[in-house]
User: What shape does this take?
Amino acid sequence: METERQKVGHRPGINDGDNMLPTYRTEPSADDAVDAWLASHGQDEGAPAIAGDTSRPEFYSQARWEPLFRQMREAAPLNRVEGTAYGDYWNICSHSLIMEVEGKPDLFSSSWKYGGITIADPAPGEEFQLPMFIAMDEPEHSAQRKTVAPAFTPAHIAELAVKLRAHTATVLDSLPVGSRFDWVEKVSIELATSMLATILGFPWEDRHLLTFWSDWAGHMEAARIPELFQVRREMLTEMATYFHLLWEQRRASPEGTDLLGMMIRSDSMSEMGPMEFIGNLALLIVGGNDTSRTSMSAAILGLDRFPDERAKLVADESLLPNAVQEIIRWHTPIAHMRRTATADCELAGQRIAAGDKLALWYISANRDEAVFPDADRLDLSRANARRHLSFGHGIHRCVGARLAELQLRILLEELMKRRLQVNVVGELRRVHANFVNGFRQMEVELTSY
Ligand code: HEM
Assistant: This one.
């Protein structure tokens, strides 16, 4: 009997050498699966009304998070919430407290051992925890981070810029002027995914799989809802199978200046097993995909909502580097990261117990008026925009930050070169989850100026 997997199967662009290539599902997307579940179970299932419950996905899908966090920053920037769909945890809402927690990685762990990096706890008996350095503490974290660092040096990034610019130009030149289209699908997803495929040396014809898998991996509601949890695990197992084949193929011919080649040839790689390779590859595609995609949509939304700022940028392109920082501050692509206390301690005068879960709400820190006056406003000449916490802080600060900034900068430069203005004219749908603060759809129309 034909299985579901075979029906929707997809053959990868890699060769395992024996003509027995596995197949991979390419649908439903994580967003569609969550939508279908919510349609049959109701929006509030599993999410009781609790004061201070920052985990509720509708705060983010309906962009209603601002007043709640403002209140918390004013009244109690460190507060505890209990009984949410994601369990009990501390909300950390101010810029300074997040810096403090991230500055003490021994006391506030990122490791799977204590629960990992999001407020979704691993399920009891959950074995699908890929080893990846974002969810490791020292010394393992630094040893593995070194493996990918060479791909993000300024020299390497400058080389990549040429390729990214060429692909950005092709995508922009293919867009219709004067009719509606979805910016997320046509531009943000395409550019984020192709940027990752380029840096990694991932099979180009399969790059859409990166989008599909990273959406499943990063969707907190898919991880929380028990029926979808199992589907998610299957999708991620298929991803791991693909990466394993890729690992074997690239080990057989490890040449190439791409990141996969670098990782395979590196000294630390010789000590890394296939699971660690797979985990770190998954980290790069999940870490770099939804996030960069979100910032490329946020840029369009921000410039549309603040036309005076757009006019300033068009009149003075030297604002561009700071504009990139400010866009990434104004719209925080990752709403939170999690840490877990490894010992009893005190933070801002409160007792934190060993094992307590802490949610670092970057989305709130980036609107902290103590650091960013008039924080809800997009101000492209904001003097301290680069103090945003969208990339985190400390030893885990985003390794791909320069690359993400570069892609965003190239996109804005190429739009201005073509004298194109992107107007948000229709449907704007956001991701229904508390981790990736992203967009599902943004209907736009291009006009020339
Ligand atoms: C606007 C785009 C991006 C945003 C907002 C973002 C955000 C983040 C955040 C919040 C962290 C965690 C920091 C922490 O725990 O303290 C992180 C880590 C990481 N990001 Fe990004 N990221 C972006 C783009 C990228 C790209 C393009 C890549 C790779 C191609 C990437 C790869 C990683 C990796 C590997 C880590 C783990 C670093 C570590 O644990 O040492 N990110 N990123």
